[in-house]
Amino acid sequence: MNLILLEPSDFLSATQVRLTGRRQRHVLEVHQAQEGQQLTVGLLNGQIGKGLVTRLDETQLELEVSLTTDAPPALPLTLILALPRPKMLRRTLQHACTLGVSRIVLVNAVRVEKSFWQTPFLQEQAIHEQLVLGLEQARATQLPEVLLRKRFKPFVEDELPALCAGSQCLVAHPYTEQACPVADERPVTLAVGPEGGFVPYEVDKLMEAGFSPVHLGPRILRVETAVPVLISKLFY
Question: Where in this chain does the record put each Ribosomal RNA small subunit methyltransferase E methyltransferase domain (predicted)?
């Protein structure tokens, strides 16, 4: 936890915060903080600063906080991600959030198993927990927007054109000649398929919507590996 992420409900006053649960235990057990020690804190979707420990015991942590610095900005990137298997979903959400994705759209695809959509990891609170872990790692505060779209064709035909308007639209596809480029000055909309990739019909539909297929070289990567590599090639 490189940053203790605060939410508005944590505040007792304009500068006083009380934490319990996971964050309190982490400060006590991992940071081994003591009263009078300063910790790095940040407000969800807000600024970063310092928190002075004024009380810390087995049940709660109180901080006097001062938020003075802007957080790292989110990338101008929308990630359209075919829903991965549940365990991979959690890791991929964390990685995407750590790297600064602004919006994540989880979509269906032919090679996405129907049972994946029943996982409790798609519940709003479960998704929020993974995004928070990603922000804590990155020392960032900007929470990505997450959308769930269970029907591929209606999403691509009816919603995607407006969603990606004015952006550099790319679809990860290993069977193409164009290598993944560095992002230009436009925002980026990046589509990544499931294990095994998008089927040809899905690639064609994305191309009809203005997407260009790109590859990462001769090796076939797992989704949780491909997403960070693609983002790194585009922005870092």
Answer: 74-232
* Secondary structure class of 229 (helix, strand, coil): helix
Question: By residue range, what is the domain housing residue 12?
Answer: 4-70
Read off the amino acid at residue 113.
E
Q: Nearest CA to 28 among 41, 17, 39, 12?
A: 39
Q: In 3D, which of 143, 18, 140 has the Cα closest to residue 69?
A: 140
- Beta carbons of 18 and 12 less than 8 angstroms apart: yes
How far is the C-alpha of 132 from the C-alpha of 135, rounded, in Å? 5
Domain termination residue (choose one: 55, 70, 85)? 70
Inter-axis angle of helices 86-99 and 223-235, nearest 10: 10
Is pLDDT above 90 for 175?
Answer: no
- Write down the pLDDT at residue 193: 96
Confidence class for position 1, pLDDT limits 50, 70, 90: confident
